[in-house]
Amino acid sequence: MMEIKNRITSILISFYSLVIALFFVALRINYAGISKFLGADTNQSFIVMYLPIIVCILLWLIFVYSLYGIYKYPEKKIHSIITLVLNVIFTAAIGVIIYFGSQDYLDFILPHFYKSLLVTGLIIVFAVILFFPIKTNKKSIVVKTVLVLLIIISSIFIGYKLKINKFSQDAVVYAVEDEYQIVFSTSDNSLVWVKVGDKTYYDLYAGSMRSKDLVHKVCVPMEELDKYKEYTIYAQQMIYRGPFGAYKGDTISINHKFRPVDTNDGLNYYALSDIHESYDGAILAASKIENLDFIVMLGDTVSMVEYHENANATNYVANKITNGEIPVVYARGNHEIKGEMAEDLYKYVGSKNEKFYYTFKLGKDIKGVVLDIGEDHDDDWWEYFDSAQFDLYRDEQTALLQKLINENYFEGCKYKIVLSHIPITFVNARKNHVKYKELWTELINQMNVDISLSGHQHDITIFEPGAVKSNTQLVYNKNYSGIEGKTYDGYLTNNNFYAFLVGRCSNKQTGDTLAHGTKQYTGLYVQVDLNNKKETITYTNSDGEVVPVCNIFGIDDYQNEYVINLSTLIP
Q1: Reported confidence tier of residue 255, pLDDT bands at 50, 70, 90
Q2: Residue 119, pLDDT above cutoff 70
Q3: Each residue of 435-455: b (16+ CB within 10 Å) or e?
């Protein structure tokens, strides 16, 4: 009896060891963070860089040791005690890691953990059935028969991916150059198309309709959708696509009204950035503004693009705000370069040639350019594991800006916008991307733009031309910092255009931003009066309140709004 009790104790401790080992594998998203805490920014020694891997191997060795004890030493309590103590120590260590660095990433860690635990559990169940067969009797035959049928049915559904098809994410209409990219998702592989008027547009790959992805992008000429002001998305389930035939399911559809940008009665739009899973707060903030003509999504809707759902996060927020009825303009954030699905993000949002810089127009009066600095460190930063080649990517955008200037792209346009996730006019304390920020500022200065919008800093503020001397160390506004003469080791470029920082997971300008997933959020509301050539910029929050804002590096007091003349060049 005692031996059975000891064996059960050993089994439970062994399961505990397995859970800890599986969780630490799922925690790999934060291995770089552990190395960073150990000093990897300045010391990339073997122990600093590979300690998480060493710990992971050690945890699996502890698990193997616990299994060995079940069969070899079930009567010896010392074996169980050693295993239990080691597991408790590592549990405490994991708790510290989560508390100080991984709380905001649990939504990415836990799905990996649950999936691995489920698969491991199923393997254990089938192993038990295999090595410890049930005695043969009528009851056991029924149990075995049911198990076999379940295995067969599950194999069919898994092997042929059989599932009910529906629109898992409704449509978002992205403005890219002179087309709308209508993006939506289905729960199963599907052939899709969009009807506008009497014309049909398809999601194609080299002449063939795509059917292997859950996300779908259909490109429609702007002039067509602007003309008909209505579109219908269709999806037909692709149960099996073979080399010489296929089995298809039902066709589903949703009809959408569409309202193109019309500046005859003015222009209203809302900009959001750095939502970081605070979907509810961001949606509330934008939805409290009536009669929006379009919205701007400036990146970092999520903290990483690990799963299909993360890649779809921008669509989720954008659709909740727009219902697929007004245009959306998208700029990629640096956190949307991270994660297993990041290389597929171009399929989910507005993009051009699988890249995230492009021009766009809205109606007859508005033109803009979207830029993408990329990651927020230089290409040789250790966390990028020699994969970053963003200087080449930024060189392409420099050429684009010069081309736009040479071709007078903005000529005759009444309202001109520049968008980017990382602010072009602000050089941080690390002095990252100085070459490009200063060069792009010089080029944008020649374009006579009306406004530049960025995010990334988790601050809301104005970079007003001439308000702060360029290329000199920044001094915080005492109304913002609360400290007279407090400095920041960065500087502003010599911009002649107004630039605003957008997006904060908080309902006010000062104080810490809240944890990811908060229902508090502050975005930027822009009202443009083209007749009087003025624009009014206001920060509003998820409670529908106007948020007073000061220039964090200027000398102004808090203001409820900024009123700016359009197309004003500053010498």
Answers
A1: very high
A2: yes
A3: ebbbbbbebbbebbbbbbbbb
d(CA 62, CA 155): 34
Q: Look at residues 252, 172, 251, 260 and name the one whose alpha carbon lies nearest to residue 218.
A: 172
Q: Which residue has the tokens 């010391």?
A: 43
H helices present in 330-433, as ranges: 390-406
Q: What is the mean predicted confidence (pLDDT) over 85-104? A: 83
Separation between Cα atoms, residue 289 and residue 270, nearest integer Å? 8
The pair of structure tokens assigned to 285 is 């903030």
Structure tokens at 45: 């020694």
Token pair, residue 286, equals: 């934008």
Residues whose CB falls within 8 Å of the CB of residue 186, separated by 6 or more in sequence, listed in order: 165, 166, 167, 168, 192, 214, 216, 235, 237
**What is the C-alpha separation between 112 and 119, in angstroms, rounded?**
11
Amino acid at 568: T
Buried b (16+ CB within 10 A) or exposed e, 300-322: bbbbbbbbbbbbbbbbbbbbbbb
Reported as a single tens digit per residue, the pLDDT across 161-201 is 567 899 999 999 999 999 999 999 999 999 999 999 999 99
**What's the DSSP call for residue 98?**
I
Q: Which residue has the higher pLDDT, 118 or 226?
A: 226
Residue 181's DSSP bridge partners are 174, 219
Q: Give pLDDT, residue 128.
A: 66
Q: Percentage of the chain surpassing pLDDT 90?
A: 60
Higher pLDDT, 229 or 384: 229
Measure CA of the first residue to CA of the last residue in the chain; give whole Å. 91
Q: What are the Cα distances from residue 398, in Å, to 8, 313, 368, 444?
A: 67, 29, 15, 10
Instruction: Give the integer Cα–Cα distance in Å for 209 and 192.
Output: 8
Q: Give me 355's structure tokens.
A: 């890249």
Q: What's the token pair of residue 17?
A: 């060891």
Question: What residues contact 328, with CB distance under 8 A and at least 6 apart?
Answer: 172, 173, 174, 175, 294, 295, 296, 297, 318, 322, 350
d(CA 405, CA 447): 7
User: Which CB contacts under 8 angstroms, 24+ apart, belong to 227-231?
Assistant: 227/197, 228/196, 228/197, 228/258, 229/257, 229/258, 229/259, 229/260, 230/196, 230/255, 230/256, 230/257, 230/258, 231/171, 231/182, 231/194, 231/195, 231/196, 231/255, 231/256, 231/258
Tokens 């060995």 map to which residue? 68
Tokens 């379009």 belong to residue? 294
Taking residue 234's Cβ as centre, other Cβ atoms within 10 Å add up to: 17
Give the C-alpha separation, 539 to 453, whole Å.
13
Angle at 24 between CA 124 and CA 337, to 5 degrees: 115
pLDDT digits (tens, 9 = 90+) for 500-512: 999 999 999 987 7
- What distance in Å separates the CA atoms of residue 430 and residue 438, rounded to the nearest whole number? 15
Q: At what angle do helices 279-287 and 313-322 cross, to 10 degrees?
A: 30
Helix (H) or strand (E) holding 184: strand 179-186
Distance of CA 323 to CAs 227, 247, 278, 348, 430, Å? 19, 32, 19, 16, 40
Exposed / middle / buried, residue 37 (Cβ in 10 Å: 0-12, 13-18, 19+): middle
Say what the pLDDT of residue 570 is. 41
Are 257 and 230 in contact by the 8 Å Cβ rule? The answer is yes
